[in-house]
Write a structure and sequence with these properties.
Blueprint (H helix, E strand, L loop, with lengths): L1 H26 L14 E9 L5 E10 L2 E7 L12 E4 L4 E4 L1 E6 L38 H4 L4 E6 L6 E9 L5 H4 E11 L4 E3 L9 E3 L3 H20 L7 H4 L2 H5 L3 E6 L2 H13 L5 E5 L7 H6 L3 E4 L15 H11 L4 E3 L13 H10 L4 H6 L3 H7 L16 E4 L11 E6 L2 E2 L5 H14 L2
Parallel strand pairs: 1-4, 1-5, 6-7, 9-12, 12-13, 13-14, 14-15
Antiparallel strand pairs: 1-2, 2-3, 5-16, 7-8, 8-9, 10-11, 16-17, 17-18
Length: 444
């Protein structure tokens, strides 16, 4: 009996695993076919256009052809021939925006957190500049399709873990595979500064706060890594070091160093480390206490991808509203600011990015400046502002039409979305369920 029990137990385990695999394979199938290249010229007429530059055009004419914007004007001040555009979309009463950009994201790197085989966001090891997140990116992730209906059309796919996580790449969110999705490959390398303190306590208990006694040592190790890399790249060697060679772009200016740090000391030490090693392009990621280091940031032309603002302060003595006001504080100081949303449930909550910008408006930031936090400002920080981030002639036609204010969850209802001029599907598993049950109750 015991032997039979063991056999049955093993069979049950195999059946459960098989069902899990089949379930995951079903979940991982894409719902939409990526849109084909733009074949007809398109004109959006009479909508309110929010250009992403701070300018707003009422009764706008936004035209695009072969994936590029070729007209941005006031519809009342121009004359167009009947055959100037193949398709005209009436935008009366609606709003047009540049596609929103989510930076420092793991979209497409993880499908289901509880399924290890679908999680490819992190490599083992401490110094991994040679890790390229883009090769693990799954363009047909079902999570990706859930963010597009809120206007998220571009993402920076970023690795996690280690002291040096690896390189990120920037993609558009409607493609067959990662090579087709690419906007900018290996745009930067990400490093995680050690924390200056450690928290004790059990789970949710507050516990104690203690200094990180290893902080200086950990910082020195990071500094030594970059000094060694710089020396290797500047000399001649009989053997190749692929790990070290991956840092070349930081020293020749083709890549950005993204320093993940929240504390003032971390930020200052990280910037000094980069400058001492001759790294010129620097962006702070997180930056909760960046306002304390504002003079240093301004002096070195360093921007901030600000951490999730729908959160609590990091210290007990800080204003409870400080995270909500942080974007305005930094913007008022003249610092270039974008918004990022990493953290708990970051992939699924990426769709809430425009509403984070909307919160900044509620706490004093001008609405068009808040829009720039997730469009042109972020594009500048990622080095893609010549191609994306605003509605300007010559740029990619990556944009969308909303029935109302795109920064307000009550009114951001997309009717059309375009990536590089291609009209993409806004359907998701959720919209299909909604249609299904609406049909059910309409039958009654």
């Amino acid at each position: 009996m015991h032997y039979k029990h063991q056999i049955l137990k093993k069979m049950n385990i195999k059946i459960v695993l098989l069902l899990a695999i089949l379930g995951f394979s079903t979940l991982s199938q894409a719902q939409q076919i990526p849109a084909p290249p733009q074949s007809k010229s398109i004109l959006i007429l009479n909508a309110t256009a929010h250009l992403g530059t701070g300018e707003v055009i009422e009764d706008a004419a936004i035209g695009f052809k072969e994936g590029k914007i070729n007209l941005v004007a006031n519809a009342q001040l121009i004359k167009l021939g009947k055959d100037a555009f193949d398709l005209i979309i009436d935008g009366t009463g609606k709003h047009v925006y540049p596609g929103f950009i989510v930076p420092n994201s793991t979209l497409g790197l993880v499908e289901i957190d509880a399924v290890k085989s679908s999680d490819d966001e992190e490599e083992i090891g401490t110094f991994n500049p040679n890790v390229r997140s883009i090769v693990a990116y799954t363009a047909d992730s079902k999570v990706i399709e859930t963010v597009r209906p809120n206007g998220i059309l571009i993402a920076q796919i970023t690795p996690r873990g280690g002291r040096v996580s690896g390189s990120s790449s920037i993609v558009q969110l409607d493609a067959w595979h990662w090579k087709e999705a690419l906007i900018k490959e290996n745009d930067g390398i990400h490093i995680n500064l050690p924390a200056t303190f450690k928290r004790g306590g059990w789970w949710a208990e507050p516990g104690s706060i203690e200094p990180n006694k290893e902080y200086n040592k950990q910082l020195q190790e990071l500094n030594a890594f970059f000094k060694s890399a710089k020396a290797y790249l500047g000399g001649a060697s009989d053997s190749r070091n692929l790990v070290t060679e991956a840092t070349k772009g930081l020293f020749d200016g083709t890549q950005t160093l993204f320093i993940h740090a929240d504390e003032e000391k971390q930020i200052v030490d990280g910037i000094q480390l980069a400058i001492e090693n001759g790294i010129k392009k620097i962006v702070i990621v997180g930056g909760f206490e960046a306002y304390k280091a504002a003079p240093l940031l301004l002096k070195n032309n360093i921007g901030v991808l600000l951490r999730r603002i729908h959160d609590l302060p990091t210290n007990e003595d800080q204003d409870i509203d400080l995270p909500y006001k942080m974007a305005k504080i930094l913007t008022d100081k003249g610092i270039l600011v974008g918004l990022e949303n990493s953290g708990s449930k970051e992939r699924m909550s990426s769709r809430n990015l425009p509403f984070l910008a909307g919160t900044c408006v509620s706490y004093g930031l001008d609405k068009e400046k808040a829009l720039q936090l997730i469009t042109l400002n972020t594009a500048k920080l990622l080095g893609i502002d010549q191609q994306c981030g605003s509605l300007e002639e010559g740029k990619d036609a990556t944009l969308f039409i909303s029935e109302g204010d795109a920064l307000d969850m009550r009114t951001n209802k997309l009717t059309h979305a375009f990536i590089q001029g291609r009209m993409i599907s806004l359907a998701t598993h959720q919209t299909k369920l909604s249609d299904k049950y609406k049909a059910k109750y309409n039958q009654k």
